[in-house]
Amino acid sequence: MNFLRALYLEDEMSGVCSGTQWPSTGKGKKLQLSSPVDGHVFGNLSMATSDNYDELVECAREGFVFWRAVPAPERGEIIRQIGLKLREFKHPLGTLISYETGKPLQEGLGEVQEVIDICDYCVGQSRMLYGMTTVSERRSHRLLEQYHPLGIVAIITAFNFPMAVWGWNAMIGAICGNVSIWKPSSKAAASAVAMQKIIGKVLALNGLPEGIFSLVIGERDRVGKKILKDRRIPLVSFTGSVASGRKAAKKVAKRLGRTILELGGNNGIILTANTDLKLAVPAIVFGAVGTTGQRCTTTRRLIIHESIYDEVKRRLVAAYQSLKIGDPLQETNHVGPLIDRDAVATFTQTVQTITDQGGTILFGGNQLTGEDYSSGCYVEPTLAEVDHDLEIVHQETFAPILYLIRYEGEVETAIAINNEVSQGLSSAIFSTSQRETELFISAQGSDCGLANVNIGTSGAEIGGAFGGEKDTGGGRESGSDAWKGYMRRQTVTINYGTDLPLAQGVRFEI
Ligand code: UN1
């Protein structure tokens, strides 16, 4: 476990940090950190108390007063240094992600790369927080629009991307002049502690005050609820299930705070009669089993034209037979464990429900047992043949279960099936016909936030805005103009003349 030491992780950890300081958590509840890879407990963490939380928020308020006055390109310079530091620690950080969450090492390293990429992106973006000017209807007047920081951004993240999703939010938020308080999933607490320790080096080197990047690991009912109700926090960026996102959004809305929601997906790939299967098969398999089916962008539904259905099925079964499941740190394995035993129970229950509702399991469906799988978290990636309208198919099960759905006729039928679920995150089409692909990305096409052509549903690049529609929550994070969601917009009207004309020609004489 050299990577734990390389990341300065000790056996006893604190779950509270205001930047570089780790205040004592006192009576905080203890959390055991264990790995789904081998079931070992590799550390203990003391969670934040309510007092810890309040102190952290006060410190962040002070941090904001400092940070908002730092010129944006100077803020970008700090982020540049963070990106360089992360390059130095990429391997141990990626290894920790893999060990703590169970995703293959390649994907763990890819996740750290995603944070490095967003850092690089933010360095440039820090010089491009553009406003605009427009003409006034009044003589010697000018209208302009500018963007200011909001204040404290709370970032609530899930276990499946324990560093990247924080990176999108914290880095974009920071160049915009905000400070952040990160509440990670307690299932991936060590990844958060390690990240905080690494960025702390940069904060210390630059002599920055506390309260710019804070971390709070606490119970959902204690710390999580406090964040949602806290008027001192103008923006909450929430990643998680639709059910918990709905509850969180209600609480924040009650105080008229802002949210950025990145909730569940039920992502489909359409395979038309014109599919290039050489491209499609690896994209489907990576999309369905990558991160053991626990990405919000995981491919869950395949909508396959009847003319190629049997061939697709044959190739997928063959591909699934060749998948190696086991220790994700060994690079010869394709698939690691699920996050915990509860996730295995959900998987097993879903497999049962599929058959109860009339579906057929084509491949897999079982939990794996034996010496290599002693943590009890490993399952077989699963293929199921189903009708598109089964209730279970319309739900997101966070596990490697891929539904094969047959369609007849034109691509419009497949698009309708793609769009009939309540979630709207990612979608894809495989086709060499421009008519079909253009229709898919047109206004009559996919209703999702991400619509891909001849690539799979997962593995989005940071340069685009990331997020989805309908039950996915409508939020946008990461690239493009997503930064605007982290700022308050101000319209300014300037009179540089000697008269005071009123808008709309209203006359008022005194
Ligand atoms: C998530 O699962 O919450 O597009 C994020 C992807 C990754 C991010 C997934 N870049 O699959």
TrEMBL record:
The keyword Oxidoreductase applies. GO terms for molecular function: aldehyde dehydrogenase (NAD+) activity. This is Aldehyde dehydrogenase (NAD+). PANTHER family: ALPHA-AMINOADIPIC SEMIALDEHYDE DEHYDROGENASE. InterPro entries: Ald_DH/histidinol_DH, Ald_DH_C, Ald_DH_N, Aldehyde_DH_dom, ALDH7A1-like. The keyword NAD applies. Keywords: NAD, Oxidoreductase. Transmembrane segments: none annotated. It comes from Desulforhopalus singaporensis. Homotetramer. Residues 28-492 form the Aldehyde dehydrogenase domain. Belongs to the aldehyde dehydrogenase family.
